[in-house]
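Forwarding these from the shared drive since the link keeps breaking.
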Amino acid sequence: MMICHCMAITDADIRRAMDWMRAADPETLITPGKVYRALGKRADCGGCLPLFIDTMRHADSLRIPMHLRAPSRASTQGEPHEGRHQGHRVSQSGSAE
């Protein structure tokens, strides 16, 4: 099925590009931009993006590697969030001057 008429990209092209990326690097995060680059093309008018993303979503090779799905909490245990102090917001400091 034709997904992008501007760049002549089919659903099979998208699946093949995703399979190639997954085979080349099993831990890569596959994005629409990476698929376009793998095909040597670019998004022109953007009208195809919803269908392009839907095609990607239904491909088996889109899976995210398990260790990248949820960040480990063990590495941030006891550290302040983003290195900020607890009362870093003006609304939390009590005076808004």
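-- next protein --
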Amino acid sequence: MIQRPYTVVLIVPTGIGAAVGGYAGDALPVARAIAHVADRLITHPNVLNGASLYWPMPNAYYVEGYGLDQFAAGRWGLNPVRGNRIGLLLDSGIEPELRQRHLQVADAARATLGLHLTDYVVTDAPLGVELRTAASGATWGTIQRADSLLRAADKLIHRASAEAIAIVARFPDDEGSEALQAYRHGQGVDPLAGAEAVISHLVVRAFQVPCAHAPALSPLPLDPDLSPKSAAEELGYTFLPCVLAGLSRAPQFISQRQSANSTALWADQVDALVVPETACGGSAVMTLSQGRSQLITVRDNTTRMQVTAQQLGIPAIAAQSYLEAVGMLVAHKAGLHPQALHPTIEPLQAIAALDGEAHTPKVLGLNQVV
């Protein structure tokens, strides 16, 4: 018997201080493990981006957060590609030398990785990124010139035939901030992540194309006490390499009107969803959990959020760690109930009749009972 591909969605929300996935690509090992269990893994840049580091996974779908929400809601499908033409969008607020560093990365990606990049554009006004922190400690942000961002993206799509957009925006330098120091030492929330999500969401919502962002920052001074979880961001002048690698194979978004495409992946084909235990309030989690997808929550991946599946009334299987979650995925893919792998199994119980419920079904026809 031929079985359809086993599909898993892995989500670690951005900017919420996740113990795993809240730093510089530190959820990549989780994604690699799940990719060996799943036939198809759907995840997002926060999981796969490691600044200068990344890992090619042929069965992984690199999907921006807004696009992932639309996919989960059944409004968009994911159409796999052999390769995308990537348009590079640079904030005019980036200093000339730092801009040149990013252009050199783009040329290196063409020469060394063989990626297809279009000519680049520079915004007609500085984007003006501003960083914010919520009372919970989660980070977010805004940009002053969203209009300039969208005009530049439109130019790449309609004049350079770009199929995916890599954005580099100038972010504020704040070397002395306590938040940045905590993050560099593996203890805080990524101060940039929330604003990055806002930037990519704007482009994906407006143009329905794959998009990801890399912040432009001045190099930080050497820190001998740097956490390994944050170290990937300190290897060079730019975070762009992983973005270009991810976008090169990012699936294209298609609408329901194009659903005749047999290669497209839709939300009702998702078998399992893996999320941190306290981060179940996101749009994708809420919508996918209403379908046939098995929700697996991971207790060890603590976050600044406190929204659990139990609080929302969503059925879920709780795993202590990602190692345990991977084992649950293996059992689920095999069609095994996890209880069968425990040393004891409770016997089946009779279903009690409701008050006034008849014990003999009422026959309506040859094969109809109520």
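The CA atoms of residues 68 and 178 lie 32 Å apart. The radius of gyration is 23 Å.

- D.
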